[in-house]
């Protein structure tokens, strides 16, 4: 049997932790094999939860006497020290005791501690935060989503290479199509940085992906491309807008289908279609943002997600290691 995938889990970060963390691990373990969970956190709390929510795969509990709080600043979190569950889980990846680290904790703290402990991939200047969004034909990889407010053309070119590598690692049977998020589809649109990035990507031949030019905000879900590249400021605004729109649509649809007898009848008749629609917009199914650019993969689960969302982020970890993401990034850079 092959070596197990070793996932370092910060069990103390995010809302309702460590309960949802252990529930998420338990759910993930029912559908996955050959996983070794290294769980960092309060040993006494975790042991009680494991008794209630058994884990079918191999696991171990590493006691961490302290935890980073959600309202800690990144600097305060780093100063909190090496005895926190987040720091210890990242350190296990640094020491090559685990393959990947997953946390639902403080985002700023995770990025700072990861960058303090883990080296950057050669020739990558800045890490990028990437996440999965649904489209008509499958899934988009979108980056950067907030790690870098300002980016130059080399950064955006690097993000294209890393995003393409991530998509290929997660979906090896699909052709990768990369686009730059812009205010128009014409070559003359956009600022100098994005125009120069367009020239860089257009002038190079890429064996692992196809560059498809610009994409506008209203085309993000069309499915014509599957890797969308932008700076962290624009990407974060786009992400929050998409999340807000999805929540608005599902909320308004629920109200329309429950506020009178005709709506309830319609809801009953179209139950299967409505269930598919709700599932398509369920953010828990796309949980797990990836900090790309470091020599070891770092995954951020949404702090407010439940155990189902956390289990899905564990599935992302599994796919990333099986898909050899870091090696693919290095190959693309060469």
Describe the protein's architecture and organization.
This protein has two domains: 1-120 and 293-323, Isopropylmalate Dehydrogenase, CATH 3.40.718.10; 125-291, 3-Layer(aba) Sandwich (Isopropylmalate Dehydrogenase). The chain has 334 residues and is of the alpha/beta class. An eleven-stranded mixed sheet has the order 3-2-1-4-11-10-5-6-9-7-8, sandwiched between helices. It is globular and about 60 Å long. Helix 4 (85-94) packs parallel to helix 5, helix 6 crosses helix 7 (192-203) and helix 6 (153-170) crosses helix 12. It has helices at residues 19-31, 43-52, 74-80, 85-94, 107-117, 153-170, 192-203, 232-256, 261-269, 271-280, 307-322, 325-333; strands at residues 5-10, 35-41, 58-63, 100-103, 128-134, 139-143, 177-181, 210-215, 227-229, 289-292, 298-300. It is built from twelve helices and eleven strands. 45% of the residues lie in helices and 17% in strands.
Level-1 CATH class name of the largest domain: Alpha Beta
The count of DSSP E runs of length 2 or more, i.e. the number of strands, is: 11
Strand content: 15-25%
**Structural class from helices and strands?**
alpha/beta
**Low-pLDDT regions:** none
Helical content band = 40-55%
CATH architecture of the largest domain: 3-Layer(aba) Sandwich
Q: Indicate the CATH topology of the largest domain.
A: Isopropylmalate Dehydrogenase
Helix and strand sequence: EHEHEHHEHEEHEHEEHHHEEHH
Shape: globular
By CATH's scheme, which homologous superfamily of the largest domain applies? Isopropylmalate Dehydrogenase
How do the strands line up in the largest sheet? 3-2-1-4-11-10-5-6-9-7-8
Tally of separate helices: 12
Largest sheet: 11 strands, mixed
Question: In angstroms, what is the radius of gyration?
Answer: 21 Å
Average pLDDT for all residues: 87
The structural domain count equals: 2
Give the termini distance in whole angstroms: 32 Å
């Amino acid at each position: 049997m092959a070596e197990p995938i070793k996932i370092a889990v910060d069990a103390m970060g995010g809302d309702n932790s460590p309960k949802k963390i252990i529930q998420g691990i338990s759910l993930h373990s029912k559908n996955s094999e050959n996983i070794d969970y290294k769980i960092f956190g309060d040993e006494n709390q975790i042991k009680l939860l494991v008794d209630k929510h058994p884990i079918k795969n191999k696991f171990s509990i590493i006691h961490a006497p302290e935890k980073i709080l959600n309202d800690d600043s990144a600097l305060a979190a780093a100063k909190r020290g090496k005895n926190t569950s987040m720091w210890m889980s990242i350190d296990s990846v640094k020491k090559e005791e685990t393959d990947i680290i997953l946390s639902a904790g403080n985002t700023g703290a995770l990025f700072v501690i990861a960058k303090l402990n883990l080296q950057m991939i050669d020739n990558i200047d800045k890490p990028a935060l990437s996440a999965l969004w649904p489209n008509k034909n499958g899934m988009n990889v979108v980056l950067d989503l907030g790690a870098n407010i300002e980016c130059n053309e080399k950064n955006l070119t690097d993000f294209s290479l890393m995003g393409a590598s991530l998509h290929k690692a997660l979906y090896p049977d699909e052709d990768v199509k990369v686009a730059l998020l812009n205010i128009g589809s014409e070559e003359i649109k956009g600022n100098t940085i994005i125009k120069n990035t367009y020239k860089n990507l257009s002038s190079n031949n890429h064996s692992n992906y196809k560059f498809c030019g610009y994409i506008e905000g209203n085309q993000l879900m069309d499915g014509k491309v599957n890797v969308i590249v932008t700076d962290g400021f624009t990407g974060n605004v786009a992400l929050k807008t998409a999340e807000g729109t999805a929540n608005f649509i599902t909320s308004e649809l629920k109200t329309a289908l429950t506020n009178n007898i005709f709506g309830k009848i319609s809801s009953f008749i179209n139950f299967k279609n409505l269930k598919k629609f709700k599932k398509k917009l369920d953010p828990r199914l796309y949980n797990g943002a990836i900090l790309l650019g470091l020599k070891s993969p770092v995954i951020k689960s949404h702090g407010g997600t439940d155990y189902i969302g956390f289990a899905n982020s564990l599935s992302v970890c599994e796919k990333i290691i099986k898909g050899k993401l870091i090696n693919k990034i290095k190959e693309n850079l060469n």
